[in-house]
Design a protein that fits this description.
five-stranded parallel beta sheet, 13 helices, Argininosuccinate synthetase, chain A, domain 2, alpha/beta, Rossmann fold, elongated, 390 residues
Amino acid sequence: MNSGMKKKKVVLAYSGGLDTSVCIPLLREHYGYDEVIAVTVDVGQPEEDIKEAKGRGEKLSDSYREVDAKEEFVRDYIFTLIKANGNYEGYVLGTAIARPLIAKRVVEVAKEEKADAVAHGCTGKGNDQLRFDVVFRTTDLEVVAPMRELSLTREEERKYAEEHGISFETEKRWSVDENIWSRSIEGSELEDPSFFPPDEIFQWTVSPGKAPEDAEIIKIEFENGIPVSLNERKMDGVPLIKELNEVGGKHGVGRTDMIEDRVLGFKSREIYEHPAATILLVAHRDLEHLVLTRNELRFKEFVDRTWSELVYQGLLMDPLYESLNAFVDKTQERVSGTVYVKLEKGAARVVGRESANALYSKDVSFDSKLEQRSAEGFSMYHGFQSRIVR
């Protein structure tokens, strides 16, 4: 390249895996970038994965950056998800809600470095390409996706990696994506919907059949829809979620094996582990039923579903997302109280709840002296139109 030309610089969202590692030499050889900056955003991946990404990134790239975003992820993304009962077809949105944050942090580095482009290692088959692209394209930076644009097979990737001295000690049988909120496992035989997943794929949860015989009851306190205490110990979000992942996983809580409708329109078989997410979402939804009105709950079901679909699609920058959060936050002003959850053989069941904002009234209990005949007038016209039709 002519020395008088402006040096081209690209910032890559880097996980340390095969796809993004292969992207580094590809960005130089096939796209002509002179400088590749690899950025790993820590949203709660295993420490070993972060360590491997750093070692490989420092070796392969021109510059490596590690960004700790765990607290931001929990505070601004996971807590928002809990308040909206985030759930897409049974999936607790762990990967989906992390990608926009990762993309945002990559863009921040790109601006600091005065880069010309941003890049990711997503393929053209999945949802993640959309979640990265929608954030990247809010800038005037060039967006590059080598895996999608070159359509390399897995075998071609391995060969290219070998040619460029990129080695992986062991070839992983399963494709795993993990953060503090959930762990997803896919690939290999798991792509067959009829294949029984072996226990070896699970790391966070024991098989429910092998869980302790003795159940455990935990106490979770919420303030304005946010979990703030576990078993009467005030805790920040990150340690609270980590502890719930451990205690829930010990009881086999939080496994999902599902057929998922991807944004692109086709179905995929997905397997997830999410003990803390299961416990917190079950507890939060139950507390809402104690303190919110019937009309609020009915309308919020629609809001929660729409919110979850936007997150699944990566559309956190959509104006509707902000509007939905405004409604959700208003409802959460009264969602404070304590929920008791029983963990037993893969199940998380609410066994008690209490709140100063409870709408439950003992005036209508079995032992109350309420004048029951006063309900007769209402009962007389209940179903009136239905009776006329018959």
